[in-house]
Fold:
Amino acid sequence: MKSTIRQIHFDEAVTALKILTRELGHPLAHHSERNASISSWLQHPLTIPLFGDKELRDKWVARLFEQSYPALGRRRESTKLVDGRHELFILYERIPFPPTSVGSFRFIDLFAGIGGFRLALQSVGGQCVFSSEWDKSAKETYYRNFGEFPFGDINIFSGEHLADDQVRDFIPNHDILCAGFPCQPFSRAGVSARNSIGLKHGFACETQGTLFFNIVRVAAVKKPAVMILENVKNLVLHDKGKTFSVIEQTVRDLGYSFSYKIINAKTVVPQNRARCFMVALHGEKEFDIPEFKGNPLPLRSILEPEPPRSYTISRRLWLGHQRRTERNLARGTGFTAHTAILDKPSNTLVARYGKDGKECLIPQKGKNPRKLTPRECARLLGFPEEFRLPDTDTPAYKQFGNSVVVPVVTKIAKLLAARFGKSLAGRKLSPK
Ligand SMILES: C[S@@+](CC[C@H](N)C(=O)[O-])C[C@H]1O[C@@H](n2cnc3c(N)ncnc32)[C@H](O)[C@@H]1O
Structure:
């Protein structure tokens, strides 16, 4: 029998699989993880889909072959599906950051946000095998950039209610675990906001504070060679250092070394953004996290030449900012809003920036100052120009305010890939 080579575009494949799953009356058709199961399976078509089974997989494969067409031209950005003598290429040409089909190591992206870690790890040859993020709008942004819809609440995949075997089945084998876990329970602003309304903070915050232990659960079961974690710099000081000691000791108890560094990203992007980066190596000595030296970059360098007028703040808002700033400066506490000095890095961009822009207002001649545009925010976090932004501004500000600075992770990941890439790739990993 003659072999055939066929192809299908990734988005057509997703639609075809959604329709088929519904036609079959499979429970996945109405499952909250349907889009994640389908899109992540397409990137790893040798696996059994999460929340599906082998029978469903075989039907998906058959349907994809039916809906595909003969392969033409180049097929660079693709994953390959082989069925007997027939090959099918799933094309990712319309996706800015497509999956690498043969990575030199595998990683997972927990608390994935819009994929700051993923951009960095993919750029040094990593293949993402699992991502989790529960914010609907962040998932959409992730999907339009990576062609993968992240799975949702990490508790579904690593919660206390699960047996080790279940966690093992949910989370694919991987070499590097990445997690910028939620920082509100540990950040200075988050702690004082929680205190003021009588809520608990740190590990005692039941919804957000315990998520570090989900990372621990995954690491305990899957034993990745490396973990890269990120959080606010206040993590180190929270609860007089007790929180951080628990984190370090817990990681060490799992058989990992633990190193950390507070890195201010201002020499790689024009933003003062000091974050705590932690690297843990299984059964190895401490990793030497690189220094970020050099001159701080000027905010001016990322500004758009002609931003739309809509970013100029209203007279009312600007007067309000000035009044509150004066009051608070006199009291020595709280809210202050100033126009930015364009020859210096900006203040730290936070998730609430879109509300009133107070952290960074761009002065304008003869006009009220303006907020940064979402594209400028993307640049402040080191996201490439091809990165597709959300359609509306409010989620865009939140997503970039929560994000990790991509070039910082890239520098760390490059060193890790150089040190471990080969041995990681050589490790025998099952296809799951
Ligand atoms: C600090 S942000 C990480 C951002 C990410 N590193 C990036 O580059 O965009 C933390 C993320 O965790 C997500 N998150 C919080 N709780 C979660 C949960 N239980 N399951 C999955 N994601 C969660 C939040 O929606 C947020 O996007």
